[in-house]
Amino acid sequence: MKWFLRLALWTNLLVTGCTILGYLASYLHPDNLGFIQTIGLFMPWLLLGNLALAIFWLFMRKRLALLSIVTLLIGMNQITRFVGFHFNQEKSPDQIIVCTYNSRSYNNNNRFEQFALQIDGKHNPDILCIQEISESHVDAAKESSKFEHTHFHRGKMILTRYPILAKGHIQFDNSINGCVWVDLDISGRTVRVYNTHLRSNRVTREAETLMDNIYSDKAQAFGKFKRMVGNYELASQTRIAQVQTIRNHMKHCTFPILLMGDFNDTPFSYTYQQFNHDLNDMFKSKGLGLGSTYAGSLPGLKIDYIFADENFVGLRHEILRIRISDHFPVMSYLKLKN
Q1: Is 220 within a domain?
Q2: pTM, whole model, 2 decimals?
Q3: Among 51-55, 222-226, 234-238, the least confident range
């Protein structure tokens, strides 16, 4: 029994150490310590591990339970970026409903149309931001969603019932990654909306085959794990430059701001923290339950967000568990302050 308890203690020390490094990732630039950013991929499991170990020690050695309990408590401000405790979900007559969705609608796969059919009559967003939609699906998206006003550029689209006063885009490179923006007339007030798609981690294919190889070919599985972590580390460094470009653009905006989209990064990342300096994460403000938005091979990831500045009040936040794409749609109900 002693050897088992000793093993449990060393496991606990490892889990708590990695968890604390995961907390620090928000404040450490990826160019300096990029490998720490990769811990964000595993933070949901590290948090679950701390909870399980705390319960275990409460039955075995109560004092040792403090190790994980204290670790969870000191990170509560960051944990609430991923786990929501807001039971008071509100609505208002003058609410604005916004939604972001990576539809993965390329080539012959028009997943956006399936999504539009599923939410029709159940959810009625006023502003809908779509990522990964090809130009060949734009006309069908307009028709199926019945929005009057749209703006599309290289895989990103904003659809809205509000009149568009101005529009533009921010292109990072020759890929689909970038940002589109519109200025909307909402009840006589101008609101800036950004729809962004940051650099992908390119880990999906590795993750899909990783578990298959663990039992059949451990060396190959380890190689795929290393590539997956390396891809994430490189992508996190690229995303920082993209984030800075968007933040610089926002600095010149004098209107209330909404920012949403597929950030391809976790709430424990440096990417998240940069946006969190200027804006409020609507999940953290009004979310309930687990905040995971990725429906692919890496369960528990939250990489899709809706942020708003201080001109908005959050009323309600939902993650629609609709399995059409490899992302779940994210929806927020907000109200402009007077």
Answers
A1: no
A2: 0.91
A3: 222-226
